[in-house]
Amino acid sequence: MDGPVVTADGRPGAADKRKSEGPVELGVPPHRPTAEFPRHLETLYARFPFARSVADDPISVVRPLATDPRRAEVAGIFAATLAIGNTTAIRGAIGRLAAAVDGDVGRLVDPGRAPERTRRLRSFRHRWIRGDQLNFLADRLTEFYAKEPTLENAFLAGWQSDGFASGIDRLARVLRGPDPPAAPLPPRGYAALFPSPLAAGASPAKRLTLFVRWMVRDRYPDLGIWRRVPTGELRIPLDQHVHWIAYHLGLTGRRSRSWSAVEEVSEALRRIDPIDPTKFDFVLCHTGVSGDCPKRRDLSVCGPCSVRPDCRLWRGRGSAS
Ligand code: SF4
Question: What separation in angstroms does the CA of 231 have from each of 212, 213, 315?
Answer without folding.
Answer: 10, 8, 33
